[in-house]
Amino acid sequence: MRATPSGRRRPISSEERETVRFSVLASGSGGNAVYLESGQTQLLIDGGLSGRELARRLACLGVEPASLNGILVTHEHRDHILGIGVFARRFSLPVYMHPATQVAAGPLLGQLPAVVPFQTSRVFAVGDVQVTPFPVPHDAVNPVGFTFCANGSKLGLATDMGYVPLGVRERLKGSHTLILESNHDLTMLQEGPYAWPLKQRILSRRGHLSNDTTRSLLEALMHSDLDRVVLAHLSEVNNQQGLALEAAREVLARSGRPIRLVTARQDEAGALMAVREKRGFAKPSGV
To answer: Which strand (E) or helix (H) includes residue 248?
Structure first.
């Protein structure tokens, strides 16, 4: 069921049941969260906003927090888990995360109503969504990206990583929608106001992806059924939306197809978008 602006619940149509949708609720150093829904399942991935703000942004999509099937955690940094504890307790939601992440995040999360541990690279199901967590190189204890597969659609999510190992590319292949980090413009970072130790952290192999590195990743992931790319985790200090989009467009333009390209925002939830545009379904590769 989905809530209407008046707060009343309405039935989900058959078309909605077949379509996997997502919204980037927030992206950036001020907080990160993504919402994903299939016909039977509603998930929150990360929760780096306050519990109140997470509920507000979900309400903008017509989503009732209590209807969520769970919260998935990529890693323990504050901008990814700030509101999860309060939110999970308020709405009695299970939290899915790696055991090492649970230990590292414990002081900020507090007591949770339920924790469901997962192991990196092992597929598990939440409702009708097949979830694959895969390792990414970042300065956290056990950071992961995710792929989500349901109803013939595949979404790949990979942010907060310093470089792109072959394993990350392999997991993301065949995605109909990609949410990828495009954190900084190299020149802006090098010439910008950050202290040198912080610049070194961002540029390290456990830091964040530049626009140029994301462009190279996109080149490796292009395929005939790629429908949408969302550039995420853009730095407000060391990047500009235009620079990130320009780098990605260079690659997407070569496809000759109308691949949708947007940037995720920090200050408001993105629109609820289909992971895959309707053209007849085939089993996604790289599950």
So the answer is: helix 241-252
Residue 129 Cα to chain centre, angstroms: 15
In whole angstroms, give the CA distance from residue 202 to residue 200.
6
Domain 15-271: give its CATH superfamily.
Ribonuclease Z/Hydroxyacylglutathione hydrolase-like (3.60.15.10)
Domain ranges of the chain: 15-271
Per this entry, what is the length of the chain? Answer: 287
Structure-block tokens of residue 99: 């055991």
pTM value surpassing 0.90: yes
- Are 158 and 180 a contacting pair, CB within 8 Å? yes
Q: What angle do CA 209, 239, 104 make, to 5 degrees?
A: 45
Binned at pLDDT 50, 70 and 90, residue 1 comes out as low
Tens digits of residue pLDDT in 208-252: 999 999 999 999 999 999 999 999 999 999 999 999 999 999 999
Report how far apart the first and last C-alpha atoms of the chain are (Å, whole number): 28
Give the pair of three-digit tokens for residue 79.
């901008």
State the residue for tokens 């989009």. Answer: 245
Tokens matching residue 260: 């949708």
Contact residues for 85 (Cβ-Cβ < 8 A; gap 6+):
51, 108, 109, 110, 111, 112
Closest CA to 263 of 223, 232, 240: 232
Unique residue bearing structure tokens 């780098």: 247
Percentage helix, strand, coil for the chain under 3-state DSSP, each rounded to 5 = 30, 25, 45
